[in-house]
Amino acid sequence: MEFTLTAALPEDAPAITDVFFASFTNALSQRMTPDTEDVRAFETAFFKNAAEEAQSSKGTDFIKVVATGPGQEQGQGQDPVIAGFAIWKHYEGEKDPHEGEKIEWPPSSDSALCESFFSGVDQERKKAIGDQPHYYLSMLGVDPKFGRQGLGGRLLKWGLDRADQEQLITFISSSPAGRGLYEKHGSRAVHSYEVIPGHYETSMVRSVGGVRRCK
């Protein structure tokens, strides 16, 4: 099986939503965005909008990993499938155009927890980065069916390589499951905090090239 990284398209939104629910299964995700009909519709609309924004804005990159099996190029076997995705944000020090927007969370979600979590991540990013231009890994997910094939690392490295090319630092908000991968690629933890009982989120910063440097 071969894996190819390419830009996500608006029409990929339903398949990426499937990957989202397959990959984000911890207790925090189950509370914030359970796999219900209204939350699925919300996430599909979110990914469609994100892909459209990536097509028209320099500040967003939305990439996918497509799995292609033997014979698929010749029209045989199953169709190619989306195995993973990542959304990268690029800030030049300007204000986030979506900052302050009121999000209408679906009824099945825990709207208060969603608001608290995402506003907390934004505060952590500003505390760690300030007004410096930087890259930010907004979301990364890999379908567990394609686990242990290095896809998370490839999606991560795609953005880190661009940050290095532009000599920019990177911010990542990590769940416990992702921390080891991010540390392996040069990120360091700057603050850990409890979001719900038993779930600790970790704010991480990666200097250019993954080498820790003093400001």
UniProtKB/TrEMBL annotation:
Q: Which CDD domains match?
A: NAT_SF
Which InterPro entries does the UniProt entry name for this protein?
Acyl_CoA_acyltransferase, GNAT_dom, Trichothecene_AcTrans
SUPFAM superfamilies, from UniProt?
Answer: Acyl-CoA N-acyltransferases (Nat)
Instruction: Please name the Gene3D superfamilies in this protein's record.
Output: 3.40.630.30
N-acetyltransferase domain residues are 66-209
Q: What Gene Ontology molecular-function terms does this entry list?
A: acyltransferase activity, transferring groups other than amino-acyl groups
Q: What is the lineage of its organism?
A: Eukaryota, Fungi, Dikarya, Ascomycota, Pezizomycotina
| Highest taxon of source | Eukaryota
Q: What is this protein called?
A: N-acetyltransferase domain-containing protein
